[in-house]
Specification:
By secondary structure, this protein is of the alpha/beta class. Helix content is 38%, strand content 17%. The chain has a 6-stranded mixed beta sheet. It has a two-stranded antiparallel sheet with strand order 2-5.
Length: 190
């Protein structure tokens, strides 16, 4: 066991380079989600001073390109990068009748709320299963932190939030909450 406290760092990916402006039909909103999942990200200008760069030897990341690209920019080739599907973002599918055009946020928020309520999960992972996956991801990071003294994850806002909740239930304390901002760093300690 490590005599110093163990730390877990949850980092959200950088901002994807994709336009959200204008009004979207249902089909355009669905296409936006597909494009977002493949989009390149803005260059990370500076690293957070909260990351112990000298101690980070391996980093976990989602299999989605925006997380991997962010991890590569933040940590470079010297760090072992471990892509793992358990760290992918909670899925979202656009819900609604294909009538009219609305701001993208309307499509996304409406669809996400219905998904959270269990009413919009056809052909995608249910909210219940996604929460279980987030708990399993938290357990994986805990094991890593117990063995190596720290665990670092570059993933997604929604997933990171549910991992953070699972860690808090296990007695981890939030020292820094980067929220859901792009390249936001949340640091937990136990």
């Amino acid at each position: 066991m490590n005599p110093q406290p163990a730390h877990i760092y949850l980092i959200r990916h950088a901002r994807p380079i994709i336009s959200r402006k204008g009004f979207f039909s249902k089909a355009q909103a669905q296409q936006y989600i597909s494009d977002y999942n493949l989009a390149e990200v803005e260059k990370v200008i500076e690293r957070s001073e909260h990351l112990p760069m000298d101690r980070i030897k391996r980093v976990f990341c989602s299999t989605l390109p925006r997380a991997k690209a962010t991890a590569c920019m933040l940590f470079g080739p010297e760090v072992e990068l471990i892509e793992d599907a358990r760290f992918r973002e909670f899925e979202n599918r656009i819900w609604g009748l294909p009538l009219g055009k609305f701001p993208l946020k309307w499509w996304q928020v409406t669809s996400r709320i219905l998904w959270l309520l269990g009413l919009n999960q056809k052909d995608i992972e249910s909210f219940k299963k996604a929460k279980i996956r987030a708990t399993q991801a938290a357990d994986h990071l805990v094991r890593e932190a117990e063995v190596h003294g720290l665990a670092v994850l570059v993933a997604h806002g929604f997933l990171n939030e549910f991992i953070k909740r699972a860690l808090k239930k296990r007695g981890w304390k939030v020292l820094l909450d980067g929220g859901r901002g792009y390249v936001g760093v949340t640091q937990l300690e136990k």
